[in-house]
Amino acid sequence: MAKKITHETALLGLTAGIRKAKELNQRSTLSVVDEGGHLIASIRVDDAAFGTIEIAQNKAYTAAAFRQPTAAWMDVVQPGAALYGLERSCSRPFVVFGGGFPVFDGDSVIGGVGVSGGPVEADEAIANVIVSAIQEK
Amino acid sequence: MAKKITHETALLGLTAGIRKAKELNQRSTLSVVDEGGHLIASIRVDDAAFGTIEIAQNKAYTAAAFRQPTAAWMDVVQPGAALYGLERSCSRPFVVFGGGFPVFDGDSVIGGVGVSGGPVEADEAIANVIVSAIQEK
Amino acid sequence: MAKKITHETALLGLTAGIRKAKELNQRSTLSVVDEGGHLIASIRVDDAAFGTIEIAQNKAYTAAAFRQPTAAWMDVVQPGAALYGLERSCSRPFVVFGGGFPVFDGDSVIGGVGVSGGPVEADEAIANVIVSAIQEK
Amino acid sequence: MAKKITHETALLGLTAGIRKAKELNQRSTLSVVDEGGHLIASIRVDDAAFGTIEIAQNKAYTAAAFRQPTAAWMDVVQPGAALYGLERSCSRPFVVFGGGFPVFDGDSVIGGVGVSGGPVEADEAIANVIVSAIQEK
């Protein structure tokens, strides 16, 4: 049976993420959700725009909801592609650009991480640091 | 007067669908709605991601709402096409990719079936098995 | 670590619940959710009104969200009581009348059951049968 | 010009709040919002029910929105009282029971704190600790 992400592990992950955000000079919101997509911890770095809050959470939620990085959907939801409209097919929006990753314990998805605030590459770099910090515990 | 889908028939359809999902090695949510688009029965196969739940229901709902397979709308909702934006034209989202089918009794639509979890082809194969099992009763 | 409710166990619970509903002559919707409040299985008994569908799901969701029977909140949300307005304090409504119960594995809540369709006493009797059938597995 | 709550101060406040929650043996969600009601930081203590997440945030939001403790509204929103229905008068719900407090810098409100998970008295005790820790910085 897979373990759960404790609040201490989540905070430890966010602290590592904040460090990475500063290193990349990004002002971002960083979020961690559990297996069911429910928020464990979120932190908005100073001067991050408030528009980043829900995007970070929805990225983490989307990663947990489908057990895939959010960017995995980008091609397939385009006009003419197989799942056009997926991102708005449910009452709560899914995010299909990069910055959300599932968190694994072995083969099981035990949560998700989402970062919003910078270019997709920076969001993903920060999110990866958080995921690694959580998975290493 | 067209017949109604009983809950026993719906369960029988879902059981056939679960068998097909296992055969195809898909972890999916399978839903059956009535003529009014209202849920009769839904089942989420073990290990299906929770993101599939509402999509399956919205596919079944969409199929009942328009009496068409969900995939029938895909071309016409594309950018530049005649019904661009149809999938978000109402408070509840419609799904315009495959996996939802109406259920007929003769010429009358008596409900809808929706499946979400795998590639569109697998979702449609599973949904077709459910529709057939219901229509054969 | 607590176990998960499989779809087979959920169906077995719903089958026991349908039997109880017939015995009580009630037309109800019966729902089972996982630990995160996400639907595993739902069935609407023949001739149950469609208004019962979401109530049953929201009862199961509320029981999982707070790990309490839904009826536990009834007194405390009344005008003048300590948590007046709790049922509408979040974007998704909570149900505070009877018919929703958490499902336990030992001390851990692993899901919720909700039933809607009859008088509160009947809803609770049916829900209890479902909870017992699931917990006995 | 009033100061802003930095993310470091918010985390420091939440850490003090977690300590208080453990002392009171409560499993709660603790949230801090800025002057605009937008989330700065949130943490869900291990084993806190997921139903507490949005309530904690809505308490902090309500405190910032009206620059009052959430409990200040309780009497006046009762049936027959002057602002009956206030808690549902906007698209986002307000919370009118205790557990939310504004954060001051001198006479200016610079944010809000919300706690959900235990009895109102415990939520308020934890929230007060967070507010003090933030205001002392």
> How many strand units of chain A?
4
Measured as a percent range, the helix fraction of chain A is 25-40%
What CATH calls the topology of chain A is Beta-Lactamase
CATH class of chain A: Alpha Beta
Shape category of chain A: globular
Oligomer: homotetramer
Q: Write the element-wise H/E pattern of chain A from the N-terminal end onward.
A: HEEHEEH
Concise account of the structure shown:
4 copies of one chain form a homotetramer. Chain A contains 3 helices and 4 strands.
Characterise the protein shown here.
4 copies of one chain form a homotetramer. Chain A has 137 residues and is an alpha+beta fold. Chain A has one domain: Beta-Lactamase (2-Layer Sandwich), CATH 3.30.450. Chain A is 36% helix and 20% strand. A 4-stranded antiparallel β-sheet of chain A has the order 2-1-4-3. In chain A, helix 1 packs antiparallel against helix 3. The model of chain A has no long low-confidence stretch (mean pLDDT 97). The interface between C and D is medium-sized, with 19 and 19 residues. Chains A, B, C, D: It comes from Pseudomonas kilonensis. Chains A, B, C, D: It holds the Pfam family HbpS-like. Chains A, B, C, D: This is DNA polymerase III subunit delta.
